[in-house]
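Entry type: protein chain
Record version: 2
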Amino acid sequence: MAGIALGVAALIIVLSVMNGFQKEVRDRMLSVLPHVEIFTWGPAALQNWEQLSAIASRNPAVQAGAPYVAAQAMLARDRALRGVQVNGVDPQAERAVSQVGDQMIAGSLDALQPGSYGIVIGQALAQSLGLNQGDPVLMMAPQGSVSPAGFSPRMRQFTVVGVFSSGHYEYDSSLAFVNVDDAARLFRDSATAGVRLRIADMLRAPQVVQELAAALPPGLQVSDWSQNNRTWFAAVQTEKRMMFIILALIVAVAAFNLLSSLVMAVNDKQSDIAILRTLGASPGAVARIFVVQGALIGVIGTLAGVGLGMLVAYNVDVIVPFIERTLQIEFLPSQIYFISNLPSDPRASDITTIAVTSLVLSLAATLYPSWRASRLQPAEVLRHD
């Protein structure tokens, strides 16, 4: 019973923490990335972005829209060179679809005015290039011009007007924002352009994409955040499944212990079983005795494990700091990890799956001992007693 309880509790706690990490990383990603994108190739799509936003806003799930231009570029500072994803945005409209304006640690997103060629970069990127607010940086576009002297890339000097920190290293080290008009002039036909949308429920993004694709004019493409980050979420789901299988072995071991204990009980109670049979008990009645015994152990152990697991999972933010203070250790050092607190997100679906799995394994463990008890022959047993 204790083994089943510990196995169930371990499963609930670990999966809840994994869900918490996934939710934390997802929220930090979506503080920078849009929920849905409507795009096509070339900045010409910006000419009617208000019309596209109006069409998309007819969907009740859409809350706001903003224009954007996206392209790959290189940033050069002295001898340092970094590849970046450049997003051309409208500073005012961008605040409605992302939280970049609230994540500024230096400067302001509003400084991205047309024609000023200002740039807002992530904190990690600024550190790697040695840039501060007000410093110039050279941006090189992938397209250029061909002359008798050879190929020369299109270049433009930008001025750092702000630095943001999303708490997600991948974006803080490889993402830059410029004004949408400046991006359209620099990249011309080498970029994608369109409208970034924010929806009420980010989890409904795939369904909203299907609805928008049917309502928008042909030639436009629609994608959501789960498609753009498919590899990362697929890896997280695979890891979660493997962790469930590995930890479920704890419950399986407990169920095997339950099976072995019932087998030993059958061996010890052979005389009692034989006497019950001689008094008129049917083989089915004898089998039900051991099924009920094993089922009670499984049910009580599962309920105890669910209670213990939920107690810990819902109070991780209290329990972990208490352990850290008591033992003078730090599980997630803030100098190494962007997430310094252990997150937890218990989900009813996971808890239900774990409880059902435990009950099924426990009931399965009772089948062989109960069958063996029902097959005992009273005459053979009593002859040897």
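Comment: The CA atoms of residues 2 and 301 lie 6 Å apart.
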